Each structure stands twice: as structure tokens, then as C-alpha cells.
Amino acid sequence: MATNKSFEGEEWPVIIIGAGPAGLFLALKIAKKGVRVLVLEKEKYIVPSPRANIYMPIVLNEFEKVGIFEPFTKVGFQSPEGPTWRTPYTKGNKVLAKMNYSLIPKGSALKYKFAGMHLGQHQLAALFLEHAQKLPNFNNKWNHCFTSVEQDSDGATVHVSTPEGAKAFRAKYVIACDGASSAVRQSLSIPFDGTTWTNFRFMATNVKYDFTVNGLGIANTVVDDEDWAIIVRLDRDPNFWRVAYGIKDGMDLSTEECLKTIPEKFERLFPGERPLKYEVVNANPYVAHQRCAGKFREGRVILCSDAAHCNSPIGGLGLTTGLLDCAALGNCLIRILVRNEADPDALLDRYAKVRRGAWLGYTNPQSTENTLRMLSNDPEVAARRNKFFDKLNTDPGFHIQLAEAMNEVLIDSFETDGT
Ligand SMILES: Cc1cc2nc3c(=O)[nH]c(=O)nc-3n(C[C@H](O)[C@H](O)[C@H](O)COP(=O)(O)OP(=O)(O)OC[C@H]3O[C@@H](n4cnc5c(N)ncnc54)[C@H](O)[C@@H]3O)c2cc1C
């Protein structure tokens, strides 16, 4: 029990650390159902770095439940096509296989009349924020950097550094949505075991160029051990694209050196007339990992999204899994704080176990295989890749199977009444 009031303002039912897409989606979900929530973010705005931009039907279904699907359709791009796997421009730009969404009956695997929605994750986060700010239960503070947390039987005290000095806030539950380098997770000494992809550096660029005029699909995976890439349309602007590629053995390169690889790489990847005319809007190098927290819960502190797990971006499963964590955790918090459900500890333990299982059982192996399929020369991987492409090219049932497999990311949404 806190003996004296050594924290700012009132006690919050929930404090979320991190105003990324996960933190803001979770805040919107629970604030809508009557939970007072405070989001503390270390930056002074939503971080705009080029990262996630494709959202699958299973996630859109959760957006629908929170009333954010319709607003999202007004800003996002509804892609009519599934992914295409192809060779690089330098090797003929040949289509190897394509996922055909018209083969998938509209139902559980594909509810919508499009394959996926495209929008930069910072714009999606801004949409969550815009809608959350209309709710009286939602509060947020920028420039509030988490430093530590203490727990007792009644709640948790969160310590932050701010431009005005150190502050403390009190909550019943603290949710770590502070990304893969989570300061919350580290402050609790929770291990983040796994592996790092040390054979490449991942470059993400946002580029103005018209790839469809130049013969590419909407979402392309370029398969090659050297010139692998992801080339996908970013949003409603037909000339705005994400080009992500690997720099083989580029782990030790500085950011500057990574950026210098762009012109030569684009020359090898881009179809179209030479000299190429494009504009790089932003670019960032990343290191890719397959890592998972040893546990997703330590008392009143619960890990969610990238703070709990991170994986290679190939196949778009990172934020997908993170947003589904938020959907599940949001339902648990609503059950505990609005419906006063008995035994909150058992419910939160189950969240921690189920969501860790979803990452270990589906997201980790699937994102690993997606990455290897794109770049590995290992004979066993090559055999699996050929079989995968053969099945896509010859077996209509395989398209349905792949679309349905996505449902494994949400084993249990912890709903009790469909909300
Ligand atoms: C190039 C690239 C492409 C990707 N593409 C896809 C894709 O297409 N689909 C997909 O599903 N996933 C994709 N991902 C993964 C996706 O970007 C992440 O899963 C997503 O960012 C996770 O969101 P988050 O809100 O959990 O964490 P973050 O987006 O990392 O947000 C964390 C927030 O916490 C804040 N924070 C950090 N430390 C503190 C602190 N101490 N105190 C307060 N605040 C703090 C940060 O400033 C940030 O605002 C991609 C990743 C990369 C790198």
C-alpha cells in the first residue's frame, strides 16, 4: 500500500508506456469501454520511421469491433491483390508465384472484398490517437520517458523523466508497449531470448516511383540471395511505395554507409526506363531479430506487442501479432476493470501464456520461413520454396489454407460478449 501520495494526480486504472500503434490501439479499445487510461510516450510526437504498412483481415476485424474500421477505410488503400513472388529486375523480373484472393471464398478467412489495407503505421497510430482523444477516459503525455516501476499489493508506481524533471504516476496495471528495446521489460530483468539475423541488414525506404506502370504487382516479394526485396504500394498514392531490401553481410555498416547503398540497389531492383527517376522520401536501416520475452507478465506489469516479441518484418507479422495482443489484453482489462471479473490474476496469466504461445507457435516459425524463403540458398529451404510455389501455382485449396492460417495468430481473443 502506498503510504503517502508521492505521485502526480489521481491513480489510473491503466497506464500504457509507449504511444506507438500498439499502445494507442489498446488505449482506444479500453477507453471506449469505460476504462480511464494514461499513455506516457518518451518522444514529443508519434515516431514516423518507415515500418509496418500492411494490415491483414484478422486485424481489420479487431478494428471493426473498436469502431475504427470505417475511418481506416477512408485513409488506407484497399489492396485488390495478394502477394506476388518474383525474381529481381536484373534476373528478368519473372513471376514465380502469386496468391490469388479471388480463389478464397468470402467468409472466415477473407471477410473483406480486398486482400489487405495499406497505410504507414505512424498514420494508423495517428488515427487511433485522433479517435482516442475524443474520449473522456483517454489521456496522454508526450516527453515522458519511462525509467522504472515499483509494485505493491495495491498497484504500481511508474517513474518517468520529463523536460520538467522526474515524475511518478500510479496505476492498478502498467502495460509495456514501448517497443522491442522495451525499457519496461529491461527494468524487470525479463530476458529477451532468441536470435538476430546477422547475415543481412534490413533497409526500409519510402520512395516516389510508379511500379505498376512498370509492370509490378501491388505487393511483391523479390526472391534472391543478394537482391531480395519487398516492394509494396504504401497507401492511396499510386506513386508512393515501400522498397525494403537486404544489405548482405551489412551488420557492421553505419547508417550513412547503409544509405549509400540505395542508388546501386535501386538500379538492380527497379524496372523501367533508364536513367531512373525516383524520389527517396525517407529511409532507415534496421537489424532484424527473432526474440521473445521469457514471460509476458510480472505482477501488475504486462508486456504487449514488440515489447514482448519481435520478428523479421518479412510477411508483415510483427505489428499484426502486436495488435492482436492488444485486442486480447484489452478484453482482459475490460473484464477486470469494468465487469469486475473474479480472479484477475488467472485471466492475466492466461493472456500471458496464450499470447506467448501465439508468437512461439505461429509468428516465429512463419516469419522465419518467410524470410528464408526469400533469401536462402540452403538446398533444404530451396526445396521447400519450390514446393510452396508449386502448390500456389497448381492447388487452389492452398490459397484458402494460407489465408486461414492467419487465424492462428489469434487463438483466443478473450471476448465474453463479442465486443
Ligand atoms: C522496416 C519494417 C517494416 C515492418 N513492416 C511490418 C508490416 O508490414 N506488418 C507488420 O505487422 N509489422 C511490420 N513491422 C513490425 C512493426 O513495425 C512493429 O511490430 C511495430 O512497430 C510494433 O508496434 P509497437 O507499438 O509495439 O512498438 P513501436 O512502434 O516500437 O512503439 C513503441 C513506442 O514506445 C515509445 N517508447 C520507447 N521507450 C520508451 C520509454 N522508455 N518511455 C516511454 N515511451 C517509450 C517509442 O518512442 C514508441 O513510440 C515492420 C518493422 C520494420 C522495422
Automatic annotation (TrEMBL):
<dbReference type="Pfam" id="PF01494">
    <property type="entry name" value="FAD_binding_3"/>
</dbReference>
<dbReference type="InterPro" id="IPR036188">
    <property type="entry name" value="FAD/NAD-bd_sf"/>
</dbReference>
<keyword id="KW-0274">FAD</keyword>
<keyword id="KW-0503">Monooxygenase</keyword>
<feature type="domain" description="FAD-binding">
    <location>
        <begin position="12"/>
        <end position="356"/>
    </location>
</feature>
<keyword id="KW-0560">Oxidoreductase</keyword>
<dbReference type="InterPro" id="IPR050641">
    <property type="entry name" value="RIFMO-like"/>
</dbReference>
<dbReference type="GO" id="GO:0071949">
    <property type="term" value="F:FAD binding"/>
</dbReference>
<dbReference type="InterPro" id="IPR002938">
    <property type="entry name" value="FAD-bd"/>
</dbReference>
<protein>
    <submittedName>
        <fullName>Para-nitrophenol 4-monooxygenase</fullName>
    </submittedName>
</protein>
<keyword id="KW-0285">Flavoprotein</keyword>
<dbReference type="GO" id="GO:0016709">
    <property type="term" value="F:oxidoreductase activity, acting on paired donors, with incorporation or reduction of molecular oxygen, NAD(P)H as one donor, and incorporation of one atom of oxygen"/>
</dbReference>
